[in-house]
Specification:
Number of strands of chain A: 13
Strand content of chain A: 15-25%
Radius of gyration of chain A: 22 Å
CATH class of chain B: Mainly Alpha
Structural class of chain A: alpha/beta
Distance between the termini of chain A: 45 Å
Number of helices of chain B: 12
Helix content of chain B: 55-70%
Strand order of the largest sheet of chain A: 7-8-9-3-10-11-13-12
Strand content of chain B: under 5%
Shape of chain A: globular
Order of helices and strands of chain A: EEEHEEEHEHHHHEHEHEEHHHEEH
Number of helices of chain A: 12
Structural class of chain B: mainly alpha
CATH topology of chain B: MetI-like fold
Radius of gyration of chain B: 24 Å
Order of helices and strands of chain B: HHHHHHHHHHHH
Oligomer: heterodimer
Shape of chain B: elongated
Number of strands of chain B: 0
Chain lengths: 353, 304
């Protein structure tokens, strides 16, 4: 990359100070994204993906706080140093966000046209009329048929897919440099999902927008992203180009996620799962945060918090296996006795139990 | 620019609002189908019209005492449909004049209370944290004082309380409940995803409060304010009955009722009609409030 990246996040820490202790939801995340690039962020629920997204736009509410030392530089400006008016000027205008639930991210009591026009009026001196025209134009661009009529309708009169298109229209109306899409297709059924992803890709090509695509669905990542960040326990555990990640995943967590994906042409009784759950952010395990669920973990993982090891060009992984690759041998689980491992078809299921 | 892709889309189910009316018009339409709410509205409209036009519709001057001896305590007749009172005043005229005071005091004081309560509750709920805790503990303390006792105490100290004084007194003691209601509504509305979405799109706090939060608060406040009008009409009558509200000879339903009590045992009409007016008003107000609740409490979200 010759020109400086559009957005650089370094050592982002977002902690929530709750009665149950300090939740370190995002704990030292760094990444950057170039102009026109699509960066995928994957991980299970509770890994800190959404909090990372909200932190970038400083939308974290009490009792959450961005810790000092965190730095978010966008177009050369440190977003954390801006005053309220300054950050409002960025939100929706230079960086926009698309939310997960098209059902609830729209205000039920205003027409969708009004809601798109509102964004225009917040960020420009456009007249009511001009803002409305722009809203209708955006509805056309996102592929809503009969946009002039649809603009006068309320969210409940639109289908889920159309509502998501409206949200995309709201996000793109000011032609932002960066769009953060937080699970934009999770609430939609599969055919609509594909359409929405296609639409985002088309709009990105046309407008040159950068996209941060947050999802737990590796299928979505494979389709849209060029680079992927895998998050676990509030940290980045692996970063790679998308082809590399799918071909040679390094981190056991990434490996687990890939195994948990259904594949066309492979018969499986059950999908593999990663045993256990993401630990609560108030109590990340010492050492490696994934070790309790890792099939390879050994004593070093408990003692030593792994740094991000360089695996290849643009490929990093937060796993001691980079140091000791010979340890990549599945440690048989207590339940997975030799008997259950006999049949290869059930070996995954045995792991999952 | 041209459409990018042709989206096949399902026609969504329109939950109870097929025409895509604005929420207010949809509510009005629901209200229009509610017979008891219509009846209540008609009654209140008639009472309101009589109150506004009181000077022109009363058969006699409200405070006139034409003949204290000959025209005293006359039973209802064609000349005096509601009879006359102890001072030979026409009861019908006094009830009509009284409605002017009773209704306007109730309406205005509820406006004061609803406005104050909404502002206070919205600030507490939106700002949250320590500010919210402090503001709500104050409300708890104020709610611990029985309202009627507070009113009597202040009315006694505040000698010669006028109509404006009465409105302020009732308004300033009536907003605690509203503020609690609004605070709860604001706290829940603040967590709505579309509020976060609006913030993410660059809306300021004022805009978020005004555009996205208050519209959700208005309906419940409207319903509770309507109910409060019925309540305040009674409280004002009670205060006046106790001699601490409207001063004689000015008529209000409370004062007409209490004036009549002197001769009530022998001339029932002196008090009964003021009492009836009160009952009818409160009933009508409650019918309207119930209708409003029905019409407004459905948030315009898809069915199920």
């Amino acid at each position: 990359m010759t020109q400086p990246p559009l957005l650089t996040v370094s050592d982002l820490r977002t902690y929530f100070y709750t009665g149950a202790g300090t939740a370190r939801a995002v704990d030292g995340v760094s990444f950057s994204i170039g102009a026109g690039e699509t960066l995928g962020i994957v991980g299970e629920s509770g890994c800190g993906k959404s909090v990372t997204a909200l932190s970038i736009l400083r939308l974290i509410q009490q009792p959450g706080r961005l810790e000092s030392g965190s730095k978010i530089v966008f177009e050369g400006k440190d977003l954390l140093q801006l005053d309220d008016a300054g950050i409002r000027q960025i939100r929706g205008n230079r960086i926009a966000m698309i939310f997960q639930e098209p059902m609830t991210a729209l205000n039920p009591v205003f027409t969708v046209g009004d809601q798109i026009a509102e964004v225009v009026r917040v960020h420009s001196k456009a007249s009511r009329r001009a803002a409305w025209d722009r809203a209708v134009e955006m509805l056309t661009i996102v592929g809503i048929p009969a946009p002039a009529e649809r603009a006068r309708q309320y969210p409940h009169q639109l289908s889920g897919g159309m509502r998501q298109r409206v949200l995309i229209a709201m996000a793109l109306v000011m032609s932002p440099a960066l769009v953060i899409a937080d699970e934009p297709t999770t609430a939609l059924d599969v055919t609509i999902q594909a359409q929405i992803l296609e639409l985002l890709a088309e709009l990105q090509q046309r407008l040159g927008t950068s996209i941060v695509m947050i999802t737990h669905d590796l299928g979505v990542i494979a389709e849209v992203a060029s680079r992927v960040l895998v998050m676990y326990g509030g940290e980045v555990v692996e970063e790679a180009r998308v082809e590399t990640l799918f071909a040679e995943p390094h981190h056991p967590y990434t490996e687990g996620l890939l195994h948990a994906m259904p594949r066309v042409g492979r018969r499986q009784e059950r999908l593999a799962v990663i045993p256990g759950n993401v630990p609560p952010p108030t109590a990340w395990p010492s050492g490696c945060r994934f070790r309790d669920r890792c099939p390879y973990a050994w004593d070093r993982c408990e003692r030593e918090h792994p740094p991000l090891y360089q695996i290849g060009a643009g490929h990093t992984s937060r796993c001691h296996l980079a140091d000791e690759p010979e340890r990549r041998v599945r440690r048989p689980r207590a339940e997975a006795t030799a008997a259950t491992l006999v049949s290869p078809a059930t070996s995954r299921a045995g792991d999952a139990a | 620019m041209t459409p990018m892709s042709d989206a096949p889309f399902r026609e969504p189910g329109d939950g109870g609002n097929p025409a895509g009316l604005s929420p207010w018009r949809a509510a009005l339409r629901t209200l229009g189908r509610d017979r008891s709410a219509i009846a209540g509205t008609v009654v209140l409209a008639v009472l309101g019209a009589l109150a506004v036009a009181a000077k022109h519709v009363v058969p006699y001057e409200c405070n006139a005492q034409p003949n204290i001896v000959a025209l005293k305590n006359i039973a209802p007749s064609l000349a005096h449909p509601f009879g006359t009172d102890e001072f030979s005043r026409d009861v019908l005229s006094r009830v009509i004049c009284g409605s002017q005071v009773s209704l306007s005091v109730a309406f205005l004081s509820v406006m004061v209370a609803a406005t104050l309560g909404t502002i206070y509750g919205a600030v507490a709920g939106y700002v949250g944290g320590m500010v919210d805790s402090a503001m709500m503990r104050l409300i708890d303390a104020l709610l611990a004082i029985p309202r009627v006792l507070l009113l009597i105490a202040i009315a006694t100290l505040w000698n010669g309380l006028g109509i404006v004084g009465l409105v302020l007194l009732l308004g300033l003691t009536g907003w605690f409940g509203v503020s609690r209601l609004v605070r709860t509504l604001v706290i829940s509305a603040r967590e709505d995803e579309f509020v976060t979405a609006a913030r993410a799109l660059g809306a300021s706090d004022m805009r978020i409060l005004g555009q996205h939060i208050l519209p959700q608060v208005i309906s419940p406040v409207l319903v509770s304010a309507t109910l409060a009008i019925g309540n305040v009409v009674v409280v004002e009558a009670g205060l006046t009955y106790l001699g601490m509200g409207v001063r004689p000879p000015r008529a209000s339903w409370g004062s007409v009722f209490s004036d009549g009590m002197i001769s009530f045992p022998s001339a029932w009409w002196t008090s009964v009609f003021a009492g009836l007016a009160l009952v009818v008003t409160v009933l009508a107000v409650n019918l309207v409030a119930d209708g409003l609740r029905e019409a407004l409490n459905t948030r315009q979200l898809p069915a199920r």
